[in-house]
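Example record

The entry below shows one chain as it appears in the dataset: sequence first, then structure tokens.
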Amino acid sequence: MHIASRSFAALAATAILIAAPAAVGQEAKPKATPAKAEAAAKGKDLFPPAYFDFMLKQRTAAGQPDTPELRQAIKDELNTRELVVREAKKQGLDKTLKTEMDLTSQTVLVRTYVGDYVKAHPIPDAAVRAEYDKIKSQMGDKEYKVRHILVDNEADAKEIIAALQKGEKFDKLAERSKDTGSKANGGDLDWNAPSNFVKPFADAMVALPKGKFTTTPVQTQFGWHVIEVDDIRDAKIPSFDEVKPQLLQRMQAQEIDQYLRELRTKNGY
């Protein structure tokens, strides 16, 4: 919400409060002095100071400068919120929405607790570096531009290999593939490191020279493959600094997942 829109909402709320004494049935009050009238126009803060401190901290942390205008905008917003909350409670919405409000409160607690857990259990740089070196070694030093045709049985795979040996085009035969993600592109899987594939597929791929296809069907848990290597190049492995944030995030997620599993086990779940 922009400061301008908050100010408009606050002005509207203030106008309502100022106009209220003129309502029918209310008794006339003694005329206020200019000082008292000014104080009455400004209104009294309806929120706890802790609410203001929290929101000010949030806004300044997000980059907004701590100015009198920002402080007034926050006050206006909090006062307007409180007025709306009071009206909502009059309609019983706090009871109707109790479950949703409880879950929202629980979400804040969980997010804060997990954030504190991460801060208290930092992943050492040495561990992140070790994970990087492990992944780098698994990737190898080559990347392969590879295509494949996936079928349900060995006989169909052998039939496709025989057709390739007779000179039929790989992309045409790929129309028989049950891999819907690649068949429309002639079986193309683009550039990949061997570690991106299951072992039987990767082993067959790295054994092929550039421009050749497997003369024996390759079986994996997905079915039977006919594989062709279109090109081979040196692997483009990003530096440690480039991937460190992603690696760190993944390792933190793994640590949190492990902690949550232990917590469930400890409590019989």
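Notes for this example: Residues 3-96 form one domain. The CA atoms of residues 22 and 80 lie 21 Å apart.
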